[in-house]
Specification:
447 residues, alpha/beta, Rossmann fold, 3 domains, 5-stranded parallel sheet, 3-stranded antiparallel sheet, 21 helices, 8 strands, 48% helix, flat, binds adenosine-5'-diphosphate, binds magnesium ion, ATP-binding, P-loop_NTPase, nucleotide-binding, nucleus, ORC5_lid
Length: 447
């Protein structure tokens, strides 16, 4: 029983369409009934909205291509000014009407020009007796355009006096996009997020021909088990599925397990996928690096510990400030001379041997230090001299706001503020690595 029925299109086209848009059947059949027959006038404008990767672009493109409807598809991110947008639409329209590969360039400055040129270009009967669809993808960008553009597009049918329907694809709801001067309201259509079952179905679809459908579906099931709690983006999941599939097949290829040994295959892949989640998904390493690691069978273990800090982006000097603060918090003040004075003369080694202290400073936790000490350390660890400008002080304030530093006992007017550094050793090592500073060499505990 075919899902889609429409007097206008041959049945095999509709069956083909159905196979191309799994899990979006209800939206597509709504669209089919809105579009009606080719020569019918449809709604002046539609507003399709839903989260990213809910298939808006894909479904719309597939629908228009499969049914061979005359359309213009523009991305409002690519065409970031109204001029680029209007010219691109006219360009594609010309292509539709003349079928020439390289139609002459059009120049269009204002929306009035656009209407005039639009009418001119769609003069030919082939375009007059059927609906033309103008799709504006990423329509939320239209908010940045001149105020007349969006209301203009919504009334394009009336202004051009042509059989045209404008479809806006957007990730935000209409209420946020609606101009406050009022306009013709588009007809809304919602694309809900895919459920885990939907994702399973869509992803299982692209199984490689050399493996059975069930084998691939079992793999997708495991993949979703690991990644679904953190990621629902179809594009991302599809990429991860392709990236890790060879690892899943390994036991089968090597003849250690057969395709139905699900338990065994699961054991083999699960820890691997969890590692992939820590590194590839968070973009700590690129996919190609990940593939290389897989080939060398190397453990991405040395990358461990980075993941927790990947989200902290600090300005260059702030990183040094934080490093200085860490050193001040964990090194005893008496050792500063040893570490940070470049020519400290001869200090007898004897003096500097570590006494057999039972506890290390790292076990005791961070100690408060005065601002001056931190600045002194900072000057010695950054290569070029920095003046204590307002900029540095404001960066210190930012570090306090981010709770990487804490201000302790500020009411002591005589001594000035004292700080404490709150970050862990792993964290500061990750930060140091980004500025090529070997912090371990400067820590008394690791001497
Ligand atoms: N129903 C579906 N069947 C197959 N692939 C789909 C489906 N929906 C989305 N996709 C794929 O998911 C990806 C993201 O879809 P896209 O249309 O770009 O999302 P959106 O435009 O809503 O952000 C695309 O690569 C597309 O091919
Ligand atoms: Mg899209």
């Amino acid at each position: 029983m075919p899902v889609f029925k429409h007097p206008e299109y041959p049945e095999e086209t509709l069956v083909q369409l159905e196979s191309l848009v799994p899990c979006r059947e209800s939206q597509v059949s709504t669209l089919l009934s809105i579009f009606g027959e080719r020569h019918h006038f449809s709604f002046p404008s539609l507003f399709i909205y839903g989260h990213t990767s809910s298939g808006k672009t894909y479904v719309m493109q597939t629908l228009l291509k499969t049914l061979k409807l005359p359309h213009v598809f523009v991305n409002c991110i690519e065409c970031f000014t109204s001029r680029l947008l209007l010219e691109e639409i006219l360009q594609q329209l010309q292509h539709l009407s003349t079928k020439e590969e390289d139609p002459p360039l059009v120049s269009c400055d204002t929306f009035n020009d656009f209407i005039r040129l639009f009418k001119q270009t769609t003069m030919i009967p082939d375009l007059q007796n059927q609906t033309i669809y103008v799709i504006l993808d990423n329509a939320e960008q239209l908010r940045k355009f001149e105020a007349n553009i969006l209301p203009g597009f919504l009334r394009l049918q009336e202004l051009t006096d042509r059989n045209v329907t404008v479809v806006l694809l957007s990730e935000i709801v209409w209420e946020l996009l609606r101009p406050n001067t009022g306009c013709l309201e588009p007809s809304p259509l919602y694309f809900p997020d895919y459920s885990i079952g939907h994702l399973q179905k869509i992803l299982s679809h692209d199984h490689p021909p050399e493996y059975s459908f069930d084998f691939y579906a079992a793999y997708i099931n495991i993949l979703l088990g690991v990644f679904y709690p953190v990621c629902r983006d179809l594009k991302e999941l599809r990429h991860l599925a392709a990236l890790n599939f060879s690892k899943y097949c390994e036991p089968v290829v090597q003849g250690e397990a057969n395709e139905r040994d699900t338990r065994r295959l699961w054991k083999n892949i699960e820890s691997h996928l969890k590692k992939a989640m820590q590194t590839v998904y968070l973009r700590e390493i690129s996919s190609s690096q990940w593939e290389r690691l897989q080939q060398d069978d190397g453990e991405p273990g040395h990358l461990k510990g980075l993941s927790a800090h990947a989200h902290v982006e600090l300005p260059y000097y702030s990183r040094f400030l934080l490093i200085a603060a860490y050193l001040a918090s964990y090194n005893p003040a008496r050792t500063d001379k040893r570490f940070f004075v470049k020519h400290h003369g001869k200090i007898r080694k004897m003096n500097f041997q570590k006494k057999h202290e039972k506890t290390t400073n790292h076990l005791l936790g961070p100690k408060p230090f005065p601002l001056d000490r931190m600045l002194a350390i900072l000057y010695s660890i950054v290569d070029s001299r920095v003046a204590p400008t307002a900029n540095i002080f404001s960066q210190i304030t930012s570090l306090v706001t981010l709770q990487l530093l804490t201000l302790v006992g500020h009411d002591d007017q005589l001594n000035g503020p004292r700080y404490k550094c709150n970050v862990s050793l792993d964290f500061i090592r990750a930060i140091s690595r980004t500025v090529n500073f070997d912090i371990i060499k400067y820590l008394y505990d690791f001497l």
